[in-house]
# Entry
Amino acid sequence: MQTKNEYFMYAIVEIAGLQYKVEQDQKLFVNRLKANIDDEVTFDKVLLTDNGSVTVGAPVINGVTVVAKVLDQVKGDKVIVFKKKRRKGYKVKNGHRQQFTQIQIVSIGGLEAPKKAAKKAAPKKETEAKAED
# Structure
């Protein structure tokens, strides 16, 4: 349980087409990623962050990333798919095991606001130089 003094930053991230609510040091299973074990993967499609104040992207928040470490590549439980049509003699039984990647969230953040401010400051100087001429 969290008290008023404790606050955990979280983010909503799009990973492999699905949206997940993630917190720092959280472990979760996502659809198979093309990465090796112990690789660090960066997700830049951050849709929402909350670190005391909620920031909502339109559709994503620029400059915010989530870094995760790949722990394992695993298979899920077997799922049986059984199809049957009554009175036709048609029965098909198939199954599959979904492939997952287990990841652990290392960090949430990485705002690059100062870089954007520097880009905005450059055009102002050009207009001042034109005014002096």
